[in-house]
Design a protein that fits this description.
The protein is built from no helices and nine strands. By secondary structure, it is an all-beta fold. Strands 3-9-8-5-6 form a five-stranded mixed β-sheet, with no helix packed on it. A four-stranded antiparallel β-sheet has the order 1-2-4-7, with no helix packed on it.
Length: about 140
């Protein structure tokens, strides 16, 4: 697990980045052991072209290693506002944050693979081909 981290956002034309800036774990070190009772928070940013407008969805997914849980455990919705001027507006930074506490995951000592995914939706919530993903790695959730 290497945080801070950056992943490319795939779309044409333009380019973007998905930043994972911090994993805030009040239970302390090691950072790959998370106490679900006190919870944890992942903070980051999206860097997207200034002409883009719609809705950004950042999801945190957990897959239990050797178990049945495989689901989204947190989500942040980002309003991507875009810019009307100038004709070629610079990239815009949009912050996001996802907090997770019990009962999102059971209060049992289990291993999980965590990942952050970003998808971009039209203003009406429609599907686009814009997205990015970052594998956070394996965590022991206690």
């Amino acid at each position: 697990m290497a945080i801070p981290a950056t992943a490319d956002v795939q779309f044409i034309p333009g380019s973007g980045k998905l930043y994972i800036d911090t994993l805030v774990d009040p239970s302390g070190n090691p950072t790959n052991v998370l106490d679900i009772d006190v919870g944890f928070t992942i903070n980051g940013r999206l860097q997207l072209p200034g002409w883009l407008s719609g809705r950004g969805v950042v999801r945190l997914a957990a897959d239990e290693i050797g178990g049945q849980i495989d689901k989204t455990i947190g989500e942040a919705i980002v309003s991507v506002t875009g810019a009307t001027t100038p004709h070629d507006p610079p990239n815009i930074i949009y912050p996001w944050s996802i907090s997770v506490k019990t009962p999102t995951l059971p209060d049992e000592s289990k291993m999980y693979q965590l990942a952050i995914a970003f998808i971009f939706q039209t203003r009406g919530g429609g599907h686009t081909d814009i997205g990015g993903v970052y594998d956070l790695g394996s965590f022991l959730v206690v």
